[in-house]
């Protein structure tokens, strides 16, 4: 493999060319309309959940506190890559500056890791609520929940900082084409004109530690919940499982694609683009639908809140 030495400071690249999701111009126009619709659903759907939880006095439990943050993170996570991808459907040459590329890399991993931690905390919250209901209010206090959310932001920042620092000083001397619709760590390592084997191992280990820790907590939490529910009545079991079903669905949709993309050696392929679309666009779009369609409390709060808004606006007009 003809790579330049690690100490080389040669860097002839001032911008990267994104090859995008697809190259067919006719299909790109269709994709522009389709993904613009998807992105609007992501923003408006998750924003609706955030506003409903913040304004509704009934949705004041820790579960909904974490759900509001999950929806906010989904908006931020999708906004890191999706607007650029949508805009690139309309241009022939899809370029991004080196600085813009690094910002995109940092933002994607920052919000992605933060979301993984929040999803894990939500599983722990369900475990406490179902298995230790008498201690729930003393364990999941507002202060404890705020500290957990703050810790998730710090954890996401540290993970993303390491991923970014591993690539920020790499020399790029050409070619500068990234076979992706956004800047990610594996495609960038592939373009670096130096040996990146050790760095790719560190990247996989870093992502693996985060994913493995979250996965263990998730699995243990739901195993304990399922064992505990065996002794409950059928009605209690049904109600408990209905509250967990939405979260389990979101966990599978999020961790499945992320695991495929990041917890394996740096052998990037074009198929990774389709998987990336799933966790960058599809999952944030489906989350509001999953949580609202399966949750009567959220639906009732939305009806009451927005029905009250309509009534008050009609009175103002009179």
From TrEMBL:
Keywords: Cell membrane, G-protein coupled receptor, Membrane, Olfaction, Receptor, Sensory transduction, Transducer, Transmembrane, Transmembrane helix
InterPro entries per record: GPCR_Rhodpsn (IPR000276), GPCR_Rhodpsn_7TM (IPR017452), Olfact_rcpt (IPR000725), Olfactory_Receptors (IPR050427)
Listed GO MF terms: G protein-coupled receptor activity; olfactory receptor activity
Database matches in Gene3D superfamilies: Rhodopsin 7-helix transmembrane proteins (1.20.1070.10)
G-protein coupled receptors family 1 profile domain boundaries: 45-291
Domain of life: Eukaryota
SMART domains: 7TM_GPCR_Srsx
Localization per Swiss-Prot or TrEMBL: Cell membrane
GO cellular component: a single term: plasma membrane
CDD domains named among the record's database cross-references: 7tmA_OR4A-like
Pfam families: 7tm_4
Membrane topology, record value: Multi-pass membrane protein
Membrane-spanning parts: 31-55, 144-162, 197-229, 241-263, 275-293
The keyword Transmembrane is annotated on this UniProt entry: yes
Similarity comment: Belongs to the G-protein coupled receptor 1 family.
Protein name: Olfactory receptor
Record organism: Eublepharis macularius
